[in-house]
Amino acid sequence: MITYRELINNAKKNIDKVNLEHRAAYEFLMDILNCDRAKLILIENDEVSDDVLDKFTDMLSQYIFDYKPIEYVLGYTYFCGNKIYVDENTLIPRHETEEVVEAAIEVINKHGYKNVLDLASGSGAISISVKNVLPSVDIVGSDISLGALKVAKRNANSVGVNVDYVESDILDHFINHNMKFDMIISNPPYVSFDYELPNEIIAHEPKIALYAKEDGMYFYRKILEDSSLVLNKGGSIVFEIGYDQGEKIQNLAKDILKNYTIEVRKDISNNDRIVIIEFNEDK
Question: How far, in Å, CA of 215 to CA of 218, rounded?
């Protein structure tokens, strides 16, 4: 038989061969045993049961040999304190996006906004997190992917918040139905087709939610061009952007918009990440 300490050490050696993260070994065991990291330390000299060993071996194999991200192997991640289910229909929410949520909540409170659109909502992490903090705000989430919308609805039900999710190609649904919002929040696809992503992202995360034409700026341009058709006067837009897109989004806004202010904020890693565009009342 093998102890938990030996199992983890062996897993780390195999993980090192493909230059992935040691945390996978701990995350998988904590999931299987429904315990925290401290409990693993307490039982490190205990023998591993055959059932646990089989489950762990299967999860580790998916991670090492299939390059399947930890969160897809588990089927969930945590975002803004909420357990968010994910599968290969949705991107895995990143910690940087939590800062986008914080910025959006700040702007909503500043202006007293009543209704918000989460555009390209994916797993629903952003809309659910905002709604969880501001339950009186009406929030609609949209995505072109029916698979993603199914995941988002599951997450909203699991967290216990009421968010309406609808299918839309960018803003088309809302323009066609003459729907207006105080704010648009969006973390759209923004990776240039020329950019090389890690194997585990390329192999499993949905390309439709990653890549964008025009050097990653296509969706920002489309949203800015049509924003006047769906935003109320004095409305705002909060974007997540790529680390090198701060200047590009400012130039794009300058070419398209009028009567606005724009702020580009850096994330905790000091990369450009959050864009806040606020329109004057006479927009």
Answer: 8
Interval 22-60: pLDDT, tens: 999 999 999 999 999 999 999 999 999 999 999 999 999
- Rounded distance between C-alpha atoms, residue 121 and residue 127, angstroms: 7
Answer yes or no: is 87 within a domain. Answer: no
Please write the tens of the pLDDT for every residue from 78-124: 999 999 999 999 999 999 999 999 999 999 999 999 999 999 999 99
Domain range holding 25? 4-65
Interacting residues of 41 by C-beta distance below 8 A, sequence separation 6+: none
Number of domains in the chain: 2
Note whether residue 48 is domain-resident: yes
Residue 224: give its domain's CATH number.
3.40.50.150
Indicate whether 98 and 61 sit together in one domain.
no
- According to the 3-state scheme, what is the secondary structure of the chain? CCEHHHHHHHHHHHHHCCCCCCHHHHHHHHHHHCCCHHHHHHCCCCECCHHHHHHHHHHHHHHHHCCCCHHHHHCEEEECCEEEECCCCCCCCCHHHHHHHHHHHHHHHHHCCCEEEEECCCCCHHHHHHHHHCCCCEEEEEECCHHHHHHHHHHHHHHCCCCEEEECCCCHHHHHCCCCEEEEEECCCCECCCCCCCHHHHHHCCHHHCECCCCCCHHHHHHHHHHHHCEEEEEEEEEECCCCCHHHHHHHHHHHCCCEEEEEEECCCCCEEEEEEEECCCC
Q: Are 46 and 161 part of one and the same domain?
A: no
At 139-196, the pLDDT tens digits run 999 999 999 999 999 999 999 999 999 999 999 999 999 999 999 999 998 887 676 6
Of 188, 185, 165, 158, residue with least CA distance to 86: 158
